[in-house]
Specification:
198 residues, alpha+beta, two-stranded antiparallel ribbon, 46% helix
């Protein structure tokens, strides 16, 4: 009887230790494989790249292309914008924002004013001063300076949800706050990498 009990206990112990060793070996191997990261697979769910055409009162346009993959903003100045064309210099236009002088002045104020060189001297302009300047002055140098200065101020300061809301509420646009909400996590980093495309 004692021999039989010993054989049963001994056999059960061997079985359980063998099963434990087998499972421990296989589970550790799978855990190790799962812990290794595959850096070729993107783990971040980036928003889709988006182009926004700001249609200016003189029928020109400034296209702002938000490139989330490369973490940059590309700015394209278009002298004659064709609303039927949604591809410029290889950048698509997904949204349009029809601006007027009041909106341009408001944007200038929101970014903290701009420096513009005119007649050999550089002066600081507020939104109201910019409206007066661009609505009566035909100097071709003013517009490129204004665009560059606005984006320079954005790169040095910030661009928030409130700024997007201000633009949407004060323009005719197919851009919505819902479109912009996912961009805000990336704009802070991207505004430091603004490229002007010629």
């Amino acid at each position: 009887m004692i021999k039989k009990a010993f054989v049963v206990v001994f056999s059960a112990a061997i079985f359980f230790f063998s099963a434990y060793a087998y499972l421990d070996y296989n589970l550790n191997g799978q855990t190790t494989e799962a812990d290794q990261k595959d850096y070729t697979v993107p783990y971040e769910n980036l928003p889709d790249n988006a182009g926004i055409a700001f249609l200016l009162p003189d029928s020109s346009s400034v296209i702002t292309y938000l490139d989330f993959e490369n973490r940059c903003i590309n700015v394209i100045n278009i002298d004659a914008y064709d609303i039927a064309n949604n591809l410029y210099y290889g950048y698509t236009v997904d949204f349009t924002v029809e601006t007027d002088y009041q909106l341009i002045g408001g944007i200038v104020d929101r970014v903290g004013g701009v420096n513009i060189q005119l007649n050999g001297e550089t002066l600081r302009y507020t939104g109201v001063q910019v409206i007066d300047l661009i609505s009566v002055n035909s100097d071709a140098n003013i517009k490129p300076q204004l665009i560059t200065q606005i984006f320079k101020q954005i790169s040095e300061n910030d661009f928030s949800k409130d700024d997007f809301i201000y633009i949407i509420e004060n323009s005719k646009s197919n851009l919505t706050v819902v479109d912009c909400i996912y961009w805000l996590d990336y704009i802070g980093e991207m505004r430091g990498n603004i490229n002007f495309v010629n």
